Amino acid sequence: MRLQEYRPLTVVAIGKTTTAPHARNVLAGSGLAEIPFRVVAFPGRPEHKATFHCEMDAILREAYRHDIL
What pTM value is reported for the model? Predict the structure, then answer.
């Protein structure tokens, strides 16, 4: 599968209720279920924008600390 060719070190799904379940299924089906997987709120609604930015900030900081980015 193409996802295996990318060899991701982590995966972030944007959209907790719609995207996350599908992304988890794809990772599992690709043999990549052990890869760190994070989910953030979709920022399309005004009330979710602050949450999205806070969650992504934490994820990016962690990725930098672990030399993923």
Answer: 0.81
